Amino acid sequence: MLENALSRRTRGGCLLLVLAAALVAGCARREPPKKTKDWIIPSSEDIQKWIHQKRDTNHNMVKIPPGRYKLGDNTFRGNRERIHNLEKAFWIDKFEVTNNDWWFFLWATKDSREFFAAPPVVMGEYDTDKWVQAHNYFKYDYSRAKYPVRAVLYGEAEMFARFVRKRLPTADEWEIAARGSQGYRYPWGDTYTQADWKTKANTSFDLVRAGQKDAGIERVHDTVEVDKLEAGQSPFGCYNMADNVSEWTTSEVTTGHGEWKQVSRDERPMAKVVKGGSFWSRQVGALAAQFIDVMAETASDQFRIGFRCARDD
User: Fold this and answer.
1) Class of the CATH-defined domain 57-98+146-312
2) pTM
3) Is 137 in contact with 143 (CB distance < 8 Å)?
4) What is the mean pLDDT of each successive set of 10 residues along the chain, which is 313 residues long?
5) For residues 176 and 91, is the Cβ–Cβ distance under 8 A?
6) Where are the domains of the chain?
7) Which residues of 265-277 are buried (b: 16+ CB within 10 A; e: fewer)?
8) What are phi and psi of 185, to 5 degrees?
């Protein structure tokens, strides 16, 4: 009986060893995340899942139907109040592009010369890690994965959009998505009170404008996660269109006559319309009709600029 018991234990031990070996082999095939400094490198499997979700589905996008939409505001030179007739439906991202999205994009394109024409060269050879570091605008850790990526050049945002088979929105499309068919001044309505601050919009707040004569400006010094401020979403369900980061559009600066128009490159080459408030903006910057124009090629120091993508229906 003792021999039989020992035999059973031996067979059981061998079976456990076989299962353990299979488990190790399985983990090796799944390419568990590797760490490089503070960054976690996504596995090729996770990258492919991300690419599929971004390219082949309308995951976390909202559809904007055709119709007549109120745009502009007569207080802003260059974006006069008007009715815009949207003839074709389009889709737009519900959320701003996140650090996590940008991180996956960098690793998905790390060996491609198509997306960044001049990757860093170290000791005469192409260096993947240096390439990723050169285009990585945050110290990556999972605690900031859902924060919006920022300080991205226009061309880089455009490359991201092209890679996921989307595009950047025009200024008018962006404003329609922010204001809805109601034509609200802010994404959630026509007023921005102190009660709305930090519950509907992550912006700085001018207490003097709010009627507190002896007060100053309450500064906000950081972004928040892109899905946090549900109360501040637009009528179409887009988040952070008044706050967090301002966003690139494909439109070029306006001449001041109520429509976005291309200007002479000699006058102001590649100045793009950037829409939406940011964490650094005050109340006026949160207005959906508000915009700034930013040089596309030299905006890497624009710490408050991010983007979201759009897609034709």
Assistant:
1) alpha beta
2) 0.77
3) no
4) 43 41 36 48 91 94 97 80 95 95 86 51 42 51 81 86 95 96 96 87 68 58 90 97 93 56 50 88 86 72 86 95
5) no
6) 57-98+146-312
7) eeeeeebbbbbbb
8) -75, -40
28 phi, psi to nearest 5 deg = -65, -40
Structural tokens at position 111: 């060996």
Cβ atoms of 218 and 204 within 8 Å: the answer is yes
Cite the beta strand spans of the chain per DSSP E: 34-36, 39-41, 61-64, 67-71, 82-86, 90-93, 121-122, 125-126, 205-206, 217-218, 246-252, 271-275, 291-295, 305-306, 310-312
CA distance 273 to 287: 15
DSSP 197: B
Concatenated DSSP letters for 262-287? ---TTTSTTEEEEES--TT--GGGGS
Q: Which amino acid is at 161?
A: A
- Token digits for 232? 């501040």
Strand ordering across the sheet containing 90-93: 61-64, 90-93, 310-312
